[in-house]
Amino acid sequence: MGNLIRYKLQCGYCSYIWETRYPRIPAQCPSCNRKIYSGRYTVLARIESLCFIATAAYGSELAPPVQFLREFRDNIVLKSRYRRTFEKILDVYYVFSPPIAKAMTEHKALKLAIKYVIVWPFVKVAQACAIIIAHAGIPYRIPPDVDGKPTVKKALARKGGEKS
Question: DSSP characters for 90-155?
Fold first, then answer.
């Protein structure tokens, strides 16, 4: 489901280096346990780990459903109060998905089965969740069109209110 971005940070007090998904302010150094406010830690690198199953199913990381899933993950799921739980699920996903994606590229029947039995329904459920969240008034970045269907933004504009 797209790229998962991680950041490599360095503590401004003890120079310890660690990786995190979201550099929070204040960050807490795992080594010296100090709370670090902006300006007291350095972002050394931005690291991307590639996605696998949705990209293999649609043939490109630029396919609209793959982009939608990436936006949904980054802008809704990983910013929710259940972020830590989803991070654990994603950690498992990123262990098992590369071999599955590789098998999908080698076996067309497997690719089609996973695309239409797993990925496509998952995209539709995520779209429904995005619409519900938009109607609830929870702010988030509107995802791109998926499969040529109207986006949440277009649906809200027809309803008379646009969320951003």
Answer: HHHHHHHHHHHHHHHHH-HHHHHHHIIIIIHHHHHHHHHHHHHHHHTT---PPPPPBTTBPPHHHH
- Domain of residue 38, residue span: 4-48
CA distance 136 to 71: 18
- How far apart, in Å, are the Cα atoms of 158 and each of 113, 125, 152, 163? 35, 21, 10, 12
Please check whether residues 90 and 154 belong to one and the same domain.
yes
Is 164 part of any domain?
A: no
pLDDT tens for 127-156 read: 888 888 878 776 655 544 544 454 545 445
The pair phi, psi for residue 31, each rounded to 5°, is -90, -55
* Domain match, 112 and 32 both: no
Q: Given the structure tokens 């998962």, which residue do they identify?
A: 4
- What is the C-alpha separation between 135 and 132, in angstroms, rounded? 5
Task: Indicate whether 37 and 118 sit together in one domain.
Answer: no
